[in-house]
Amino acid sequence: MDRRWIATWIIALVLCAGAVIAFEHWLRVHDYRPTLQDDKDLWSMQMDRLKRHGDAVALLGASRIQYAVDPVLVSAFTGRPAMMLAVNGAYPIAALRELALDPAFHGIAIVGIDSRGLSQRHWDMQQPWFDHYEHRWTMARRIHRALLTPLQQHFVFIRSPFAWVQILRRYLAGYGPPINDYVVILPDRLGVLDYRRTDVAAIRERRIADLREYYRDNRPDPPAQWLAALDQVSTWVRMIQARGGKVVFFREPSGGEHLRLDEKNFPRALYWDAYARIAPMPMIDFRDEPAFAAIPLPDTSHIDGTDIPRFTRTLLEMLSRRGILVPVAPAG
Amino acid sequence: MTFDSLTFLVFLACVYVAYWATSGWTARKVLLLLASYVFYAAWNPFFVLLLIGTTGFDWTAGRVLERTQASGRRRLLLLASIAVNLSALGFFKYAQFFTNTAIDLARVFDIHWKPLDLGILLPVGISFYTFESLSYVIDVYRRRVAASRSMLDYGLYVTFFPHLVAGPILRYNDFEPQCHVDKRWRDTALGRGVAMFVIGLGLKLCLADLVFGPVADRVFALDAHPTVRDAWLGATTFSLQVYCDFAGYSLCAIGTALLFGFRFPSNFESPFGSVGMIDLWNRWHISLSSWLRDYVFTPLGHYRKGRLRGHANLIFTFLLCGLWHGAAWTFVIWGGINGVLLVLERIVRDHVWDFTRVKALPGRAVLAFATFVIFAIEAVFFRASSIAQAWQILGTMFAIGTVGPTAIVPHQDVTVALWMGIALLAAHTLTANVRGWTWLDAVPVWLRATAVTGALAAVLFSPGFNPAFIYFQF
Question: Which residues 24-43 in chain A show a CB within 8 A of chain B?
Fold first, then answer.
């Protein structure tokens, strides 16, 4: 390489290295922390593990499972690998369907869901993750994700909110610097929430406002119609059970206005309990397990990261008492 | 494996070190061929067999064609080779399209067939390597090139990983002589190659994925109701996105090839500095447009058989160009519109005003902008998921269709896309006469360092998005 090009590249590399160091330093000074960016590739790595271990524990659900149940503790308790397949913001019936249609799966599916999530209109929410796994999850992507994970564990700036165009857009919109995220995603996709880093009251208000808006725009199906559609879900559960697998539906804790709105729109007796009477799998409502009441829900539906071990232990002990899980070690 | 992945960076580093550490030119070529198969297998190992099969078939066809003297048999051999290549392409890329079309046609005659999902997976890059194979066999038939004696060289021509999945579409007579010359590390344009790779990545990661793509995606979302402003933004930002995406890929490919001592032809030459659509098609996806010129338009008779026939040839060529891009009627229409526009431009330039003679920069800038706007309008068919959506967006653009009540593209997205778009169009207009990238070697170090630093910083500070390259689907 000629000297002029060597000089060019030395200047470019030194300047860019300086810019990276300065930006990373600025982010650290302003209390931003490294975390993995949860995406379909990270999810697919868990799915890969599930494909290798048909007898594993599959943790299905949305954010209330992803940010509350520690797969490491589940694995230690059950003696089986545990995979976090819950997806923030998406109900998990598509995941249950895919596991039912996978003849190799004969493990335990712990499904975090509520009556709203059982409504047929929400069944396909997680299908894009399975489509991604089926059609776009290649060896090249596996390697890319495996290389990206340690980088994101150690550097703050390697995530999309810190792309310069995104930052520029935020400033142009008057939003200021990127949001200092209060969730840290671990390589096994467990999300650890730290409510000390955020305005809990504002988040609580936002969640309630979103839920009100949702129920305003989406009237629940009448109980009979809602229940009739669940025949199909029961069929999928039976397919897993026929292979020796187990399924349990768990209605995760919520409180305050959140619970009131849920109850108003999906009265437990008309929906959840009605299905529990005919469902082929156990259905557990958090209100039937007093130990959950002791775990605070700062934003009315999620727990703080420090409570993850307690929440996981409570869940595992409850499932063990009901004969759904057979422990090989004490919970936690 | 895509150029914008960490997988590729590791792969490239390993192959680069192994290549230059290997002694012996043949051993190096074997290494490149094997690495190319690994590159392809990282997407889907099964289709490597298809690649090897078609490569072996066309190499054999070329050898037999060269030995055969009787013109009838030669023609038969050529047709057999073309049929095999197009059959593979037709099956994998167009079977579903033709099935859907047949079902739709049957409905016209009140015959109702259920939609049929053939479940055929499209091998990445098949449109590109099929065209390379076809050009080789046709050139051997025409005796414009000698049939390859080396299966290794021919295999490398088709498979060499930088161009394998999205071009540039190489010609055998450009590539083959490079296979005879042993490369020396000190002779390679390493600095320029890496710079081109980084600039290409910058175009893709920063401009295509972050600046223009999100705006176009909002407007072309199936449930979107854009305003007039939004619809124009969608059309123009998509044009800029597809340029940054594909030109970025091409730059990465050309830069990567340089690292190994190979030279690929340029694929984009400031297309938005074009004055007129004919000029634009001489600067946009050059390797495809020149392929279509040499292997479709010219054999059809070019303009040699009269103007009317020439116009028809041009439109037919561009209909094929559209179909090459995608198995959907939207692409065919897009190709047809391009063909008609080229014909109209020829008529205007011959009989009304030859605007290409305008030399003053302001005049050329206005004409270039007008050309870009025309390109953006027709690109609606390229981007739309259906003909109905294309008409809807076009109707909104000209305020004759449904117009959404409120803007769907936030003002901050508009501001960023607008300024970046203006900068890109201005750069193309100012560099319209610049060809290739060898000029990078001649510019002052401070200027080059500024450009390379900017591109590298754009790549480093555009993390987290990973949409596929648009042209991978073709």
Answer: 37
Residues 6+ apart with CB under 8 A from A330: A77
CB interface of A with B, residues 93-112, below 8 Å: none
Task: Test A169 with B413 for CB contact under 8 angstroms.
Answer: yes
A1 and A75 assigned to the same domain: no
A109 shares its domain with A15: no
Looking at the fold, whether A96 and A26 belong to one and the same domain comes out as: no
B95 and A CB contact within 8 Å:
no
DSSP secondary structure letter of residue B275: S
Q: If you average pLDDT over residues A108-112, what whole number do you get?
A: 96
For residue B168, whether the previous peptide bond is cis, meaning omega lies within 30 degrees of 0, is yes
Question: Residue A330 domain-assigned?
Answer: no
**Residues in Cβ contact with A169 at an 8 Å cutoff, skipping those fewer than 6 apart:** B410, B412, B413, B416
Check whether residue A25 and residue A43 sit in a common domain. no
Pair A22, A55 in one domain: no
Distance (Å, rounded) from C-alpha A180 to C-alpha A195?
A: 12
The sign of the dihedral angle between the CA atoms of A174, A176, A182, A183 is positive
What pLDDT score does B471 carry?
58
Distance CA B286, CA B52 (A): 27
Which residues in chain A have their CB less than 8 angstroms from residue B211's CB? Answer: 165
Among A136, A141, A144, A170, pick the best mutation site for testing chain B contact (most B Cβ within 10 A): A144
Is residue A282 located within the same domain as residue A162? Answer: yes
Task: Say whether residue B2 is in contact with chain A using an 8 A CB cutoff.
Answer: yes
Asked if the C-beta of A164 comes within 8 angstroms of chain B's C-beta atoms, the answer is yes
The structure's pTM equals 0.90
Mode of pairing for the β-strands spanning A191-193 and A246-251: unpaired
- Contact (CB<8Å) A162/B6: no
The interface predicted TM-score of the complex, written ipTM, equals 0.87
Among all residues of B, which ones are annotated catalytic? 325
| Rounded to 5°, angle at Cα B63 from B58 and B64 | 95
Q: What is the pLDDT at residue B101?
A: 86
Cα–Cα dist B473/B44, whole Å:
14
Q: What is the pLDDT of residue B157?
A: 96
pLDDT at residue number A55: 93
The ranges of chain B with pLDDT < 70 are 465-474
- In angstroms, the CA A240 to CA B424 distance is 56
**Considering only alpha carbons, which residue of chain B is nearest residue A148?**
B6
Range of the domain at A245: 33-321
Residue of chain A nearest B416, judged by CA positions:
A169
Containing A185, the helix (H) or strand (E) segment is strand A183-185
Instruction: Please report the number of interchain residue pairs, chain A to chain B, with beta-carbon separation below 8 angstroms.
Output: 121
* pLDDT number for residue B473: 56
Q: What digits encode the pLDDT tens for the residues A134-188?
A: 988 999 999 999 999 999 999 999 999 999 999 999 999 999 999 888 999 999 9
B188-218 pLDDT, tens digit per residue, is 899 999 999 999 999 999 999 999 999 999 9
Kindly report the CATH number assigned to the domain that includes residue A231: 3.40.50.1110
